[in-house]
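User: I've been going back and forth on whether these two constructs are worth ordering. Before I decide, could you fold them both?

Assistant: Sure. I'll take them in the order you sent them. The first construct and its structure tokens:
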Amino acid sequence: MADFTKTQGQLMDWTLLDDTGAVPSLESAALDSGEALDVALEAILHIDMCHADANDASTNYAIAIIWIKAGTTDEDWHEFIRLQATGGIANSQQLAANSGSGQANPDRIEVASTTNFTVPGAKYFLHDVGSLIASAIVVNFDFVTNDYIQCVDALVNAYDSADFVRSIVDQWSIILPSSVQAARVTFHNPDGDATYACRVQYTIITELL
């Protein structure tokens, strides 16, 4: 049976895409020959955008743009795909107690209210306010009303009552054409209040065994 040699990596860890009064645009590192993209049989970009507050993004939609390179200079980037984040207001619930790693039930998010967080299979952003890169996307497996949200998997990191669970998560996995020699992602936020947490990861298949 054939198998693939796969490589996973990260172009940008969780980074704050701020509102227009601060840093309204971000740029990931480029996926290029340093990650063996030039010999890849297939490459996938995994892009995450999560609401990082409870402010109303309304119709001022944030976007992510995938760029691919056609030459050797920075003048040679071309837009490949433009993606639109979900607008509106994220439901936000502050944690009621320590949760995750180190707890008796590390798959639970302890909250005083489960209102708006009761849909099985829903994705949430577990926002570590003190250390954004320790944040995570979690999936609702079950819940106990006004007690906790049970996640599909145990939480890798530890969270406390300064942190939040938020309800709006956008994820895209985009396959790049094999002809692409380099790719990157930029994020842009036209809103004056809403902020986002953004991340870019990749998977590359480099060999068929």
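The second construct, handled the same way:
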Amino acid sequence: MSYNIRAADSLKIIHIDERSKNRTICHLEFASVNGLSVDAMPAATDVYHSRVNNERYTACPYDLEMRYEGQVMRIDFGTNFDLESVKKHRHSSPVDSGFFTYDGTDWRGEPDTLSDPENEIRVIEDNDSQLISGLLHRADPNSKVKDYCYALTFVYDTGYATAGVCSVRKDRLKPWQDLLTQGAIIHYKP
């Protein structure tokens, strides 16, 4: 753990936009898209005090935020599954990113969400990665709270990254939907 803290102290703030030459953070390469920006802040040293955070910040020692059309998606990382876990799926090893789960055949929204019927979950496969994205609808029967989330999960050989943004109005998420249906905006860079 002290190694992670010392490593985090030496990291620099990174900003990526359409003009940036360096487009890669933690093996994720972001496409040059007008209006899309990514900010990476080194994780604070006091976050390394839990098993979950240790796993997350070992996968990427930054707090990442992706901005587009005035909305922000925070990107979280994990290593409890990877691309091999998807390709050689076993029911004893769940593949669950927090927004999407893989059942060995299809990617689906979490059990408490409904895929939006007009917007199917989309999977873009490459040799070394998969990008899963889609609009999800959540409804809590107890509180009657309803909202929509546009989420993405990017799976690669050593783990995954996942992000989402939610709103009570589905139309507010259309910019993300339009952006991610144009093609893969994230690529794996070993």
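Notes on the second construct follow. Residues 2-188 form one domain. The helical segments are 2-9, 51-59, 83-87, 174-181.
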